[in-house]
From TrEMBL:
PANTHER family, per database record: DNA-DIRECTED RNA POLYMERASE, DNA-DIRECTED RNA POLYMERASES I AND III SUBUNIT RPAC1
Gene label: LOC113689726
Sequence intervals crossing the membrane: none
HAMAP family (alphabetical): RNApol_arch_Rpo3
Gene3D superfamilies hit by this protein: DNA-directed RNA polymerase, insert domain, RNA polymerase, RBP11-like subunit
Record-linked PROSITE patterns: RNA_POL_D_30KD (PS00446)
Organism: Coffea arabica
Name of this chain's protein: DNA-directed RNA polymerases I and III subunit RPAC1
Amino acid sequence: MGVDNSLRLDDFRKNLRVEVVRLTEDDIEFDLIGIDASLANAFRRILIAELPTIAIEKVLIANNTSVIQDEVLAHRLGLIPLQVDPRLFEYISENDIPNEKNTIVFKLHARCEKGGPRSTVKSDELKWLPNGSEFLLATENSASNTASKQKTYTSFSSSQDSLPEFSNNPIAPKYPDIIIAKLGPGQEIELEAHAVKGMGKTHAKWSPVATAWYRMLPEVVLLQEVKGVKAEELVNKCPVKVFDIEDIGKGGKRANVARPRSCTLCRECIRGDGWEKFVALRRVKDHFIFTVESTGALPPEVLFTEAVKILEDKCERVITELS
């Protein structure tokens, strides 16, 4: 087919480039140049499903008289992004005991007074409990053994805020204004929410990105010069203003491709009789425009760096298996 799909390591190293186009606190746009589509898609899938993060998994409800059912309330809490580095915590299994290394505990107690207006419960009312759960664990002999210290749902040996990472940066929801519930007069919610480490392939609430997607770089080529009235018509045909008018002297005008990156390949520029002779639309097969939007646990550039490390580990395991 006239396309060289072979892969040579030296050529790959020489041609690979990463160019950051836009970087903010929550998202990044960058160009991955010199890679195959399979690698670009591998990064995308790792970002969505295999990068760990922290999310609320278990909700202990002491009182809920709101109109929201317990299951729906727990689901809404699980989807609240938490501003905490998952690399500082360990995974927890079914047989593990919740402790300060694998569990983060929040409490929520909101009440709407009788006779007052309706109130809105937002995510900033989730308060971090660095010493673990405050709900007592029910046991068979708790009544007879009141002198001894009763156990809670977690077994913290030390306070989490004693760690230098959290002493000046307490754990909290990333966004304080996420609506959890609305309470009418006399209604109340009291609960504890236990957050653990997980991955997006288990449940979407553990996905560290709101979106991670890419597109190939569009290539817009003028097959022949487009001048005069034809040039103005071409500029007006494009809805995203890919083309511009260039002055060639003596009152002459010529169209040029000014913003090929903005092209959405809508094909408006080649609609109509004869326009395919003037404009060709293509894609650069080894140039990908990547966009990653973080949910808040880690900065977007750190997420991509961690995705590269995971892909590297996968490749090393394959090499080990083959050898």
